[in-house]
Structures are given as structure tokens and as C-alpha cells.
Amino acid sequence: MNKKKMIRLTALVGVATATGVVAEANQAHAATTTTTETTNQTTNASVESTQAAVDAAQSAFDTAQTSVDSAQANVTSASNNVTSASATLSSAIANKKAATSENIASATSAVSSQAVVVASASQAVSEQAGVVSAAASVQASAQAEATSASASLSSSSANVASATSALSAAEAALTSDQSTAANNLSAAESAASSASAAVSSGQVAVDNAQAAVASAQAIVDAVAEVQSSDVINMSVAYITALKNYLANPSSANAAALQEVAKGADYVKELQQKFKSDASLDVVVGPSDPTVQEALSVYAVNLINHLRNQYGLTTAFGASANANVAAIDFVKKYYDDEDWNIFGTTGSDGKGHNKNGLDAYADQLNTSIAEDAGSGLTTWVNGKATMATTTLHNLLYAVYSDIATMLFDDGGTNNWSHAQSIFEDGTILGTDGFNNVYLGVAFDKYGYAHYELYNATEGNHLGNNAYSLDVQTAAQALLINAQASLASAKASLQRMTTNLMVAKAAVVAAQNQLAALENSSANDLVAVTKARTQLASAETSYQTALATYKQKEEALKKAGDNLAATQASLEAAQATLATAKAKLAELEETVANLTNADQLLAAAQAAYEQAVANLTTATGNLGAAQVDLAKAESQLALAEDTAEQAKVRAAIAAQVDQQLNGSTANDRQSAGQDATSLKTNGRALTATVATASAAKQKQGADQGRLPQTGNDDQEASTMALVGLGMLGMATGLYGYKKKKLTK
């Protein structure tokens, strides 16, 4: 079933039509008979042979390039070695110049002096090691004493815990019976207090239930009275004019209907007929289920009375499910979205929430129509003001809204509200309203919403239907209230019995506590003894604690002293290491000066060998570069040869194509008449409910092959082939191979 979403707004229907596009193309083919298979085989073999030569030349070039790279690396390494050997030789020459007898004697004397410094530093390290050993011994002794004091402290703490436990047990024995009795008394008194409070609460519930019965009776009587007296009767002239307009909504029929309806003046006259009853002036919640039932039944009876006058036999229905759906819709799409349908001045409203109606119709999978009225809102000095939510105001709002929909709905709305009431099976000409149920809800701005649902077995909107017989509904409401009162009275009786039992328990607990007051003398003696033992244990604990703190302090001082002596030892060791390093440096200087001739000779030999190695590496690099140049030249020549072979093969293939035709299909289709293809478009139409479109295919095959001609034409073709071959040869002559670079 197609879902429709209706609101009281004018909808524009656009229709789009697309036509097809027809394309035609002519094809012609020609065939020839000459083949050149042998020529093609020869040229293809030449291409493969020359390509193999290119691959071999490329491999030789790559090998030569690798040799050049390796030789270049050897030259770089040999050059670095020459630089290093030169620096070493310069240092040896300087050392030779400095190797005088005076310098050697001076360096030897410095070694002797530094040896004395090293011996002194070594003695200092030995002495500080002895100091560290002594400090470690003191620290170990302090650690042993601290451990012993800690064990004594733990033992004293355990004694205190044991004495504390003994005292707790004695005190528990002293107070157990009395405490239990006191707790029992407290619990009994608490239970009695709770029971008393429950009785009070139960009495309040009974009073509320009695008030609810009285209120229900008043509401039932008042609604029944209003329902029987508040009916809207239409004149025969109005019904005739409305039928004429709905059958043909011309401007003449609209004017005639407006004239008969009398507009706003007649609405005021109807509103004055609403029966006002003081019993209806009770504040209620518009979403209360009882109030909801009363409002929807009231509205449906008013509408069905009008439909009967109009001559319709099908009636609208009311149900709890339809009301729940209406409340949910208004909260979600008006209250939560701050959607003020009429606004605060009447001209700043947003109108119906069309997107919300669409979404909710999809959610319920049904058709929905929405009417809206001013509801509880009154207009004072051009601004909206919400009236007090009483049963009287709610009933009057429903009565006034329906009357306004009938007689004051002209202008841009085109009497759509009246049409929604008097159509049968459709609303505003839209099918899918065969089983209409009405839900009534008020938004947070005070405006009334009348949601018309098409109820089905799938959406369950007709479930929990209300009886439209006011007396039957009123009687059920009163019976429910009376049942609640009976239940509240029974609950109060149970609470009263519980209070009597709780008071008796209080008296019993009081007697038990009095009997135990003189039976605790032995328990008191045990408590006194346990307290004395606890005091002694706590004294011993304090003594052990003081000793423990003293030993811990001594241990800390010994540890600090050991750390200090170890730091001094480390400083002495560092001084010794520095002196030894200085001594080694001086000894190396003496050795260098003493062996200056040998060091210079070795540096000179190393330098000469490095220079010889560089000369050899440079020669190898030159030879490798010559080989690389040869390989590069051979590669370029092989590639030129391969390119020429490819060109010859391409020319042979072109000649073969000209003589034999490009494809077998061309030969089969040669001489056939041209054909044409047509593709018709499909018309597209968009509608209000749904819009669909078919994608159109366009296109036509086009192509043209050479026409078959006489001998002169064939000779011309061969001439063109010859010119093509000459042009290709000219291109080969001008071809240059780009030099490879690395």
C-alpha cells in the first residue's frame, strides 16, 4: 500500500517528460585479395634478432658501468690513504726534529717526577680503603642492634594487640545482653514508628481514593451532560452548499458556501451555546489517560453527529492506542523541536511540521492527516496566552476548534478542515482512510492537534478502542475509581493491624532490658582486669619503641659515615687514575723521542706505498672508462638497428592491411548496403506521491571503410603505399639515438 502524508497546505504537482533521441549511422566496407604473409614473417624475425642484440649490448654496458664504479671507489680509497699517510709522515718529521738530547732528558725527568706522584696517590687509596673497612664494620654492628630492637618492638605490639582483644571481649561480654536488649527495643520502636507512618499514609490514600471517586462521578456526570447538550447542528443550506463546493471547488461555489456559513459571526454564536458547568472547573492534565479518553470520545461524537447530518454512514473511532500515538507525535515533532505551529502573534508560526508528519507516517506505516486549532490559547492584545488547563477549558477548546473548522475555514485553506471531516474513504482526495481513528493531543504552547489515523491490523491503532456511549464509558471510569477506594481501605486495615503488633513488641523489649540491668557484676570484674593488663602492655610497648628509634638513628649515622668514607675512597681512586694516565702519556713521549728515526722511516715507506697504490687505481679507472665508452657505443648502434627493424615490420604490416583488409568482418561485409539504428527515448512522469525516472540510452554506431573501386583506384592505393614507405625511410635517415648517461 502506498503511504500518504497529508497536511493542510497546498501541494504543487510537477510533470516532466523526456523524449528519446534517434541516431543513425551508415557503414561501408571494401575487400582486397592480395596477402604478404612471407614479408611479415621475415620482418618479424629481424625485429626479434635485433632486439636480442640490444639486450646483449645492454648487458655489456651494465658490466662496464659496474667496473667503472668499482675503479672509482678504489681511486677514492687510495686517495684517502695518501692523505692519511701524508699526515703521519708530517708528524714523524716534526717528532724527529724535536728528538734532541735536551728534550729527551727533560721528558725522562718528567716521567720520574710523575712516578712519585703516582706512588703517593696509590698510598692515599690504600689508607682510605682501611677507613672504609672500619666504617663498614660499625654500620654492620648498628644494623644488628636495630634488627634486635625491631623484633622487641614487634613483640610488644603483639602484646598490646592481645590485651586490647581481651579487653574488647570482656567489654562485649559486659554489654552484649544489654546491647541486644537495647537494640531489640530500638528496632521495635522503629517498627512501631514505621507502622504508624504507614497507617497515616494509608489513611491519606483512602482519602485520595474517596476524592477520586467523587471527582470521577462529577466528571462522568458533567461530560455526559455536555455530550448530550453540546452538539453542532448544520442547516440544510450549509450542507447543500458544502456538498456543491466539495464536488466542484469553483470560486462561485466557494463564495456561496462562505455566504451560507456566515463566517466568524456564526462561530461565535455556536461557541456561546457551549454548556458551562461549575463541576468541570477542575484542574487536570491533558495527557492523563482518563482526560484523554473523555476528550477523544467527546471530539469523535461531535464529528460523527456532523457526518450523520451530512448523510454519511461510516463513523470515526477513538482508542487508547490512537491517543498514545498522538501524544508521542506531538512531543517528538512539536515540543522537542520547539515547533510553534501558530507562533506568539499568529503571523510568526511555522505551520504544520510536514517533515515530522512524513517521518511518523513511515514509522507507523499508515496514512496520517493532521488538523490543528487554537486549543487552550487565547489572544490578548495580539499575543498568545495559554488558559488554565481545566476540564472545562479542554472540552470548550475541542468544541470551539471543530466549530471553527466548519464555519470559519475559508481563504488559503480552501475549506480543507471541513473536507477532512466530511469525506468518506479519502481525505483531501487521498485514498487510504477507510478506518479512521482520532487521537487528540495538546502541545506545550497550548495548541490542539487532531491526528486522523487509518487503523489497520498491522499498526494496531484501533486497539483498546473506547466506547462512544458516554454512559458506558462513564460507568467504567466510576467502577475503576471505586475499586481503587476498596483496595486503599483494605490496605489501611492491614496497616492498622501491623501497628498493633509493633506496639506489643515495644512493650516486650522494654521488659527484657529491665530484667538484665542487675546481672553483669562478674563481667565488670573481667573488664577491670583486662584494662590493667592493657595498660602494662602499652607501657612496655612505649619503652621498646623508644629503644627502636634510638637504634634506628645510630644505624642511620653509621650508614651516612660509610657513604662519606666510600665517597672519599672513590675520589682518591680517581686521583690515582689521573696520575697514571699522565705518567703513561709522558712515557709515550719519551718512547717517541727515543725512536724518532725508526718512526720517520716507517712513515716515509707507508706514504710512498699509498702514492703507488693511487697511481695504479687511477690507471685502472681510465681503462674501465674506455671499456664503458665502447660498450655505450655498441649499445647505441644495436638500438638503432632494432628501431629500423621495427619500422620495416610496421611498413610491411601497413601494406598487408591495405591489400587484404583490416579484419575478416570487413571482408564479409564488403559491398553490403548501409543500415541505420534508432533508439527511442522513454517518457518520464513525476507524481506527487512518488517520482520515478528511467535512464535513457543514446548512441549510434558509426564507422566507414574505404570504398571498393576500379583498377585506377587500386593503382592509386598502391601509389599511396609507396609514398608511405618513402616517408618512413626518410624518417629513419633523420633518426638519432639519444646518448645514455648514468
Describe it.
- With 742 residues, the chain is mainly alpha-helical.
- The protein has helices at 37-98, 101-229, 236-247, 251-261, 263-272, 289-310, 320-335, 354-364, 391-407, 416-422, 470-515, 521-594, 596-660, 664-669, 711-733, and strands at residues 5-6, 317-318, 368-373, 377-380, 383-386, 425-427, 430-433, 436-442, 448-454.
- The strands form 3 sheets. Strands 1-3-9-8-2 form a 5-stranded mixed beta sheet, with helices on both faces.
Key features?
742 residues, mainly alpha, 5-stranded mixed β-sheet, two-stranded antiparallel ribbon, 9 strands, flat, disordered N terminus, disordered C terminus
Q: What is the H/E order?
A: EHHHHHHEHHEEEHHEEEEHHHHH
Number of helices: 15
Global structural class: mainly alpha
Sequence of strands across the biggest β-sheet: 1-3-9-8-2
Oligomer: single chain
The tally of strands reads 9
Helix content: 55-70%
Short précis:
This protein has 742 residues and is mostly helical.
Topology:
Elements: E1 5-6, H1 37-98, H2 101-229, H3 236-247, H4 251-261, H5 263-272, H6 289-310, E2 317-318, H7 320-335, H8 354-364, E3 368-373, E4 377-380, E5 383-386, H9 391-407, H10 416-422, E6 425-427, E7 430-433, E8 436-442, E9 448-454, H11 470-515, H12 521-594, H13 596-660, H14 664-669, H15 711-733
Parallel strand pairs: 1-3, 2-8
Antiparallel strand pairs: 3-9, 4-5, 6-7, 8-9
